[in-house]
Amino acid sequence: MSLIGRSALIVLTLSAVSVAQDIRTATLVGTVTDPSGAAVPNSGISVVNVQTKVETKSQTTADGEYYVPFLNLGTYDVSVEAPGFKKFVRAGLVLEAGSTVRVDVKFEVGAVNQEVEVTAATPLLATDDAVVGGLDDAKKIEESSMLQSKPQHLMYYMEGAYSDNGGTYHILGEPANLINYTVDGANVKQSIRSAIGETSTSLTVPVDSVAEAQVWTTGIPAEVGHSAGGTYNMVLKSGTNQLHFASEERYINKDFVDRAYFQQSVANLATAPFEYHNFDAALSGPVVIPKIYNGRNKTFFLLAYRLDYDHEANVSTTSTPDAGMLSGNFAFGGLGLPIYDPKSIACTLAAGCPSSTGWTATAFPNFQIPQSRFDPVAAKFLSYNPYAPPNTVGFYSSTGPNNNLTALTHYLSDREGYVLKIDEQIGSNDRFFVRWGSNMFREPIGRNAVQYAWGAIDSTEYSYGLREPIDVKNPTLGYYHNFGPTLINEFRFAYQRRNDTVQPQLNNQGWAGILGIPGVGPQTFPGFVGASGGSSVTWTANPSGSPSNTNLRTLNEDFEFIDNVTWVHGAHTFKVGYQGMIVRENDIAVSQPSGVYNFATSGSGLPFTPNTGNSFASFLLGSVTSATFTNLLANYLPRWWSHQAYVQDDWRILHNMTII
User: Fold this and answer.
1) What pLDDT digit, counting tens, does each position of 128-160 carry?
2) How far apart are alpha carbons 35 and 562 in whole angstroms?
3) Please, are residues 30 and 103 in contact by the beta-carbon 8 Å criterion?
4) Across all residues in the chain, what is the average pLDDT?
5) Domains by residue range for the chain, with CATH
6) Rg of the chain over CA atoms, in angstroms?
7) I want to staple 414 with a disulfide (CB 3.0 to 4.6 A). Which of 117, 378, 442, 646 is the partner?
8) Integer Cα distance of 272 and 261 in angstroms
9) Residue 8: which H helix or E strand, with range?
10) Are the C-beta atoms of residues 28 and 101 closer than 8 Å to each other?
């Protein structure tokens, strides 16, 4: 199918889904006014489902209007509050699927802790909550549109689940990190606390390997643990006596890619690299080794693979030091701020200068720092030509050049997934499966900062200077034994490992000594950091730190032990089970023994005088505002156990009535 045809199909599919959601859900609207009829903006709206206690919050606009969509059918308590008015409460409001209900509010003057309660005329619904959720089978999974063929996005189509703007999923409004996410019954998140979404924090299996995907929202069975926020489970396919093969390739041709909607410049787009492939394949069948082993009817395999290959470049306009700035000229077309010689700072008061008054310094003539005054470390650093030269006119401000560089910022992302599953029927009473799942996430360049000609000093996340390979591994074993027709035991063991490492390219190369900084270790590149607002150019070079200054390695491991026993006795089905989990981390924090050197405008400005100095001028002069030196003393090694046990009796009193 052509790209245009596939795009049209996706649009039609999403349109159909939107209509279906409107039919199933309700919308609450209204206007909030004060006693005089004037709108009350920023009023707090709380809509609480009486049956599930799920709370949806909103607030009124400047016109006093509110709009709360996608409410599951049921009975709701609506409360509206604002300072200076009595709290408005509307109890017992019945919302039906596909309806849009208006509740206008007219406040009464009073305290918030006072309430005005209005009882809805419609009687409360007599409902009895059971297990609520949705299920997609293999056929529906294959026919559903999914962003980048990631099966976690099947939640988009599930009732009760939704995604926020960051691509993180929630179930019934609960926090995203409380969702239990499993594949073949094994936890596949970075840790039990992680969210599900458009990230590399969980196992991503090939979509063609998925047999079923289900979301449970309420009434979740007792044997499912860690599910305070709902549960999302995928069951992978198993082989059969027939050989099956399926594959899919999604490819975007560069000729179909145009500039972004608001992008006026088309410079470099004609030669910008672009290649996107999304490939899935699955092979399953019996394990047969000719003349050695015939596994038909008892031993089956599944092999699956996925590749998400995204290599592209986009135009980026930014600011870079120009020739004048690099030579010490900070006039900036007559707009520059005065640059003062830090060696000339003196106190003019005989009694001393204990406060911000009485200080003086000598400004460099014509905003020019003589190159003879350049600090040797700064001069050595600049000899490596670390910054890209300007290629557009841009404009000057008082802190330097702006928008004088237009270049391609690259994005290289290679993500692979592997699955191997073996199912074995040992005998009539015993069977097991073993499954290996893994991912390799490689994003060597993630929107690199184009002002760095020396790419190794770029500290942008996933940049040339900070590569970040991520590996996820998840082996699982399940064993089932029938002690008899009414007594069954299930045992599972699973191991989840995610290793996220940041690899600064310039570490352990002795750069402090090369640049001429004495008395510090050779382990890291000395960080040169310009204070925010001190220059129009982001000139900071700190490639030995991580973008968020957190960890060089984050290693998460989970060990799961699960056992469930089911005993059917008359009208009762008894279940008893245990889940134990060992959770541990082994993290290496960022340390920079070679130092981080901070430069502010005060290093080249008149003391305690605003609108003087420039952070890059302070760097050229070697006028360090502050410096930090850190050493790693110990790894972060938390360990903890999680124990869960349950006993459940399903008692079928009548053929159409069961008590759980």
Assistant:
1) 334 455 555 556 677 777 777 888 888 888 878
2) 60
3) yes
4) 82
5) 3-119 (2.60.40.1120), 132-236 (2.170.130.10)
6) 32
7) 442
8) 17
9) helix 3-24
10) yes
